[in-house]
């Protein structure tokens, strides 16, 4: 791997900043939906059932208390419901409401349509290769926490 290749990747990732940093809310019908609600909905939809706040915290890579606040916000928005845990009355399982499931379908559809528009110049084989390489890169990045610069040292 050459320094030129690394520089090209670095520049490309910086250019993707706007793609990767979505707005705090997303228009949905006549209302705005908090991005945090979409993240919680996606985490619950992707997780093996039953889903707990701890599972949401792990999926979103946040603390349990942060996940609890995000889940409460999603419950207030009507996208998520707390379901009694049959084994532990102190714990609640989480599930999507019908509105939450519909929101998830619309959000996934929106993201896939956006990706399809961006990939119109790619062949099917290039799209498969890109998906595989990007997934591999994302897996590597998620396994390695970001290195923090030492205090007083430049990043």
For the largest sheet, list the strands in their spatial order.
1-2
Estimated structural class? mainly alpha
List SSEs in N-to-C order: HHEEHHHEEHH
Looking at how many chains there are and whether they match, the oligomeric state comes to single chain
Q: Helical segment tally?
A: 7
Q: What percent of residues are in strands?
A: 5-15%
Report Rg: 19 Å
Report on the structure:
The longest helix has 21 residues, at 98-118. This protein is mainly alpha-helical and 155 residues long. A hairpin with a 2-residue loop joins strand 1 (25-28) and strand 2. 59% of the residues lie in helices and 12% in strands.
What's the quick description here?
By secondary structure, this protein is mainly α. The chain is built from 7 helices and 4 strands, in the order H-H-E-E-H-H-H-E-E-H-H.
Features:
155 residues; mainly alpha; two-stranded antiparallel sheet; two-stranded antiparallel ribbon; globular
Chart the SSEs and their pairings:
Layout: H1 3-15, H2 17-20, E1 25-28, E2 31-34, H3 35-46, H4 53-60, H5 64-76, E3 80-84, E4 92-96, H6 98-118, H7 124-143
Antiparallel strand pairs: 1-2, 3-4
Helix pairs in contact: 3-4, 3-5, 3-6, 4-5
